Amino acid sequence: PALSGDGSVPCVTCHKPDEGWSLSSSISRGYPGISHWLNSQTILNTANLGKLFWDGHKLSLEAQAPSAAQGLSGNGKSDMMEQRLYQVPEYRKAFKAIFGSDRNMVKDSWRAIAAFERAMNTPETPFDQYMRGDKGALSADQVRGLKIFEGKGRCIMCHNGPLLTDEKYYNVGLPDQPQFWDDPIKQAGHRSQMYSRGQPEYMFRKTNTHPGVYLSTHLKQDIGKFRTAPLRHLEYTPPFMHNGMFDDLEAVIDFYNKGGDKDRTLRDYGIANKTKRLKKLDLTDGEKADLLAFLESLSGDEHLLPTPKLPAPAVMTATESTFSRK
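-> structure tokens emitted (326 positions)
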């Protein structure tokens, strides 16, 4: 909690252990009085990703951590967070023991968070066991679903590799998130983020669609593109997609079965960027059920940890001053 503006928005606010280390609401929370603009992703396996966030604008876990504590997410100021940590004797003692100093505690906090996240990996899954040769690890319908995943469903074109993501960026034509049309707080959070990242006025004043990786590249051909989501631990991380549009995997399968939706970037930005990879699949109800069964094999046991004992804010103590009271 010390790593936020008023001490009320710790990392776990948006990355809950019992919600797959993500958040079950469609759009992530922000600092009180404002709102985030994208779905909260799980922290599991993030150590194995080349870039972080939906638009890939951070290249390391150490760089990612302050982004979540500062700005609209946490509203933390480095100087205030530093002093808040320093006033807790238990933190000073721990930082000295681990990092050799109780100075620059905020920067060392990012290193500590990154170290924790590197240890957070998903447990073994039935799919892993099957790929290692245990052919009984998947049921018959899951094996059929794997064949659809690799073939008719075309899923493997983007969802491949150890984490089942190619880590590339695509515009799949997602429907609008209604909250951005109806909620002025969400509009304010979304548009102010675009403004702070240098977008032209015609984009941030009126749009209700996030421009995706364009915020990092400023290339028009990247408008509306987001990173392919990893598929491990899906059972525990609904809702799905970058704007949290789908509450369950059945809705995701239906979306891709019809070839996605129309291209909102053409409407909002005058440029057609929807990927040509998406085509109508014509999956039968049975094939969709088999594909769902396979996707369920990509989750192992729920990944939970004991709640750590943290120093309460009340343990902050006054420290010796350089100057006398007299």
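The radius of gyration is 22 Å.
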